[in-house]
Amino acid sequence: TLYLSSVLCTSARLNLGTLSSLRVPSAIIVVLVAVFLICGWNVAQAAEKKMSYEEYKSQLAAYAKRESTAVAAITEIEKGIASLSAEIKEIEQKIAAVTKEIYELIESDEAGVEAFKTKLKRLKSQIEGLTSLPSDQLYKKRDEVEALGKDFAELKANPITYLPDVAEEVVVIDGMLARLKAAVPKVAPPDYYTVVRGDCLWTISAKEKIYGDPYMWPRIYRANKDKIKNPDLIYPNWVLTIPRGVPPGYHLVIRGEWLSKIAGYGHIYNDPSKWTKIYEANKDQIKDPNLIFPAQLLAIPEE
């Protein structure tokens, strides 16, 4: 069929003018033209089929090449994975060896480190709880604050604190504890008393809930000088500050004391002969070393 089509197509290439000059009947010419058109269509279709097949073969070859490249890449990646797995195993062994050495240096183990961290966490929580207290309550907890400081000092002496993460936590807690200690009032926060009719500083000071000693009235007077212009004149509904406690480095004089007696106290100098040190440090309020008064707050110089 292809051969016949080829022959017909070749014959169709004859010039129509030539056919006319040969006096070929018109019916034959029409048939030849039809054959020519059919021939051309078949040849074009065959060419199209041939191009699609060539493209198919080309794409197939490309896919085969890509597959080969991918397989080669996978092989290389698998080799890399195997190499990395070996490196990871080696590194893990080194980490285990270093960890063991670290535990030996800090004289502990994993369980001991975790227990130590738990203690730090508990101590930190206690500090946070105390820090949230108002000053009057915090003053009452000053012994607890001091105990926490001692506990923390013991923890800091533990070699486990050499671990970086533990060392960072220790620094944080150290700062928290320092701020807590600074927040603890040096003296007891003052109380307050509302004056009623008939009160005077003498009677207020004599109350058991105040000082239980009327001779301590000057202390109330000094703490309320902003409103009391005349110590003999106070008014109902005034709210007076009642000082409590004594600042470190001072002594509050009570009835029956004199300088040598104060100097002889064990927590002062434990030596009566050192009364002159107290006198020299308080000349602004002691005019006569043989005469001191209740409620005077005397500075006690250090040895």
Describe this structure in words.
The chain is mostly helical and 303 residues long. Helices cover 61% and strands 5% of the residues. It is built from eleven helices and four strands. α1 crosses α3, α4 runs parallel beside α7 and α6 runs antiparallel to α7. The termini are far apart.
Summarize this entry quickly.
The protein has 303 residues and is mostly helical. The protein has 11 helices and 4 strands; from the N terminus they run H-H-H-H-H-H-H-E-H-H-E-E-H-H-E. The N terminus is likely disordered.
- So what's the overall shape? elongated
Q: If you compute it from the alpha carbons, what radius of gyration comes out, rounded to the nearest whole angstrom?
A: 54 Å
Beta content: under 5%
Distance N terminus to C terminus? 133 Å
Total number of β-strand segments?
4
The low-pLDDT segments are 1-24
Report the average pLDDT across residues: 85
Run of helices and strands: HHHHHHHEHHEEHHE
Characterize the main sheet. Answer: 2 strands, antiparallel
Portion of residues within helices: 55-70%
Q: Helix/strand-derived class?
A: mainly alpha
